[in-house]
Structure formats: structure tokens, C-alpha cells
Known about the structure:
- By secondary structure, this protein is mostly helical.
- It is 70% helix and 0% strand.
- The chain has one domain.
- The longest helix has 22 residues.
Amino acid sequence: MTLDRAVMMFAGFMVLISLALGFYASPYWYLLTVFVGLNLVQASVTGFCPAAMVFKKLGVRPGTTFK
């Protein structure tokens, strides 16, 4: 798995988890969905992604986007 795919998978899981928590626990969890969406937009514009930095340190091989 490349770094790009790991970041997209992590973002997808975070969105799904926050939606489930928002539905079952508290609507405030929907703010996590907003945060993930804003972070994806910011990463697409600037190329800076904190999750990519963490995955890179964990040894995930680089892809084409986050180098």
C-alpha cells in the first residue's frame, strides 16, 4: 500500500467513524467530519498533510502525491 492510498483510507475511516458516532452518541461528532473534509481540501491545495507525515514515519512507502 502506498502513502497516498493509506491517507485516503484513513480519511475515509475517520469520516465513517464520525458519522456513526454522530448518529449514535452525539451530534458534535459531526464536527470531526468537517475537520477531515477541511483537511483534505487544505492538503490538496498545499500538499501538506499531517497524516501523510505520520504514515511516512511508520514506514509506508511513498506514492506519487505526498513525497
